[in-house]
Structure formats: structure tokens, C-alpha cells
Design brief:
heterodimer, A: 223 residues, alpha/beta, Rossmann fold, five-stranded parallel β-sheet, three-stranded antiparallel β-sheet, 7 helices, 8 strands, 35% helix, globular, B: 222 residues, mainly alpha
Amino acid sequence: MRLLGRGVGCVRGGRDVFSGLDFEVRAGEALAVTGRNGSGKTSLLRLIAGLLTPAGGSIALEGGEDELTLAEQAHYLGHRDALKPALSVLENLAFWRDFLGGETADAGTDLAQDLAQNLAQSLASVGLDHATDLPAAFLSAGQRRRLSIARLVAVRRPIWLLDEPSTALDTAGQRLFSALMQSHLAAGGIIIAATHGPLGIEARELRIGDAAIQSDPAVRRLS
Amino acid sequence: MTALTALIKRDIRIALRVGGGALIGVLFFLTVVVLMPFAVGPDLALLARLGPAILWLGALLASLLTLDRLFMADHEDGSLDLVVMSRTPLELACAAKALAHWLAAGLPLIIATPVLGLLLNLDMAATSAVALTLLAGTPALTFTGMIGAALAVTLHRGGLLLAVLVLPLSIPVLIFGVAASQAAISEPVTFGAPFSILCALSLASFVIGPFAAAASLRQGLD
């Protein structure tokens, strides 16, 4: 499986954000998208997620599931965490698991137990298992981020699109998340993360914005 | 299907919790209808004649009141992005959201109608006629209103724009809803004709609403 971008261009509000961007990520690889503020890191992730239409070029996934689009095989972890303050931690996660994963079972069956266990494990993996019944409105910024990350664990998707994933996480949370990303890569997943700081995993760098596209050796090697 | 049930359940749950929109609509409906006799005066015959129109207007405004949050809340917290990306067709997701909104905010209006009918001096037959027309007509209000709610997300403007966009679309529903209710009260006109048209409006909105809303949301992503 590999994710290919060829000559990708993005126009926002009539302004060229970037153009002619080439990148390639293979299964088990991570790509760190860097660049100054406003250089189009988030836009690139949203282009890949199908939430924006590219002004030029193409983005394609080779070797994925044929019947699904690229967006349907991807997780998008954006700035906004898609949590409902009125629902509890568990209800928030259970909703996304049901909505994205599409698997539920009648209470009492083995599958139902598996699913409940899956939720508990996902919450435990991000260190939120003590707060399952707490309404999301009372979570701190870091806890909200952890709960969003639990979504990536609860529903399996081969591609993770992460926008500043370590924002608001404490050092323990960052280590936890690095381990999760590591195991996702080990399982043959793809990670594309927009970031300013270190990700905590081995990643190639794609610098966008300015003239950096031409001058950066990392990007030349990709194209 | 699981995904849609999950979406409907979540939306209803949020609407029924503290700060959700379900009760606001009913309270507004109640306020409008309770104030009306004070404004019109103690003429019982006049009240009974105006009754269906007042109930319909109240229900229309009450359903408008809560509609603007239909997509806006999901847009603001990023849920809408994930819904758009998901394997569930956006049209079906829109229909599910509208259905949940109707169940949480539209159905209580119909349940409240018999009580409010008493305040307007409507007899049993008239009240049930109004409740029946509301049952047939309010889905049309929700499903056409959804188009306005989706456009409001696209254009980054809330409430007022929604009212401007949706009110013209809901005029036919209002006309035939009130006509059918009046027909049930005063004999010469038949109940069947306007009521059938009302049902037709609802059915048409089931088809057009989700597609128009989904198209608008796709256009408006940024």
C-alpha cells in the first residue's frame, strides 16, 4: 500500500498556498509535514482527507481496498476534537466507534462483550479509563486530545492524518501516543502528521511553503 | 444502518440532555400560544377561528428556532468533517440527523398541541385535526429547513440567514396545513384535498432535503 501525491496544489481564498507538491508514503512509514504557520500543513491534510478539493495534481492510494475511497480508509485528527460536551467520555467514543466502524451487537452476545472490551481497552490505552462516565464538558484540553486519540485506536483505519497531534499532551501522553503510532506503523499503517515539534517516531520530513519545496533535500528525494 | 442508528441515538440524547434544544422549541411554542389569547382578546369565537392558524404559526417558528443548530454544532466541533469522510453516504447521514431532530424537537410540539388547543377554545375534533396536520406537515418543515441549516454552515452565518432562507420554503406547508385544519372545522371545504397535498409536500421534502443539504455541505467544506 502506498499513498501518492503528484503535483498537488492548493488555493485558499484566491491565494496560492502551495503548488506542485510531490510526496509518497509507503505502508509502515510516517511523513512529518513541517513548515511555518500558514504554509498549508492543515490544508494538505484536509486535501488528503477529501475535505478540500485540490487546485491541481492528484492524490491516490495504491493497494488499499478498492471499494473504498481514500477518505473512507483514513482517520483525521484535526484541531477540533469532534467531542460532544453533553455526552460522557464513553458515550462519545462509543458513538464514533459505531458510526465509523459500523459494528454493533445485541447485548449479551460474545460480539457485544468484545466491543465493550474494545472500548475499555481503547480508553485504557490513552489513560482515560478512570473517567469513562465523566461528561466530556469537564475534560481538560489534554484529556480531550487523549479521547480523540482513543478514536484512532477503537476503529482500525490504515491511514492516520494527524494535525498537530501532540498539542496539549503532557510528556507521558506524548510517550503514550508515540507508542500507539509506533504500533500502528508496525501493523503496516501510514501516518501523515503536520507538526512543529518532534513526533517521537521515525519520520521523513516534507517541508512545505516558501521556496523550501525546491531546496529541501528530503523532498527532492521523494520526487 | 448501524452508523445511522448511532447518529440518530446520539442526536436525540444530546437534544434531551441539559442545554439540548428539545425543550426550547416546546417552551417557545407554549409561550406564543399562551400569549395569543391575551393579544386577541376574550372573543371565544374569534379565538376558535384563529386557533389552527396560531398553532401552526407557533409550531413553524418553534421548529425554525432549533433548526439552525442542526449542522452548526457539528461543524464547530469538527464532527461534520468525520461524518463527511465516513463510509456512510452523506445524504443518509443528513436524513438521519433530520429525523433525529424531528423526533426530539418536532414530535413534542404535536404532543403539546391538545393541551394548547384548550387555551384557544378549540373543540376535540378541531384539536385532533390540527395535531394530525402537524404530524403530516412538520416533517416537511424539518426536511426543508435542513437545506437552510446546511447553507448556513456553508456561508458561516447563523440564525437570521436561516430564517430568510427557510421561511419561503415553508409557506406552502403553512398554507395547506392551516387549510386542512380549517377544513376539518368548517364544513364546506373537504379535508382530504389540502391534507393530501400536505402529505405530498412532506414526501417530496424527504427526497429533496437530504440531497440538497448534502450537496450544500460538500460545497461548503473548508
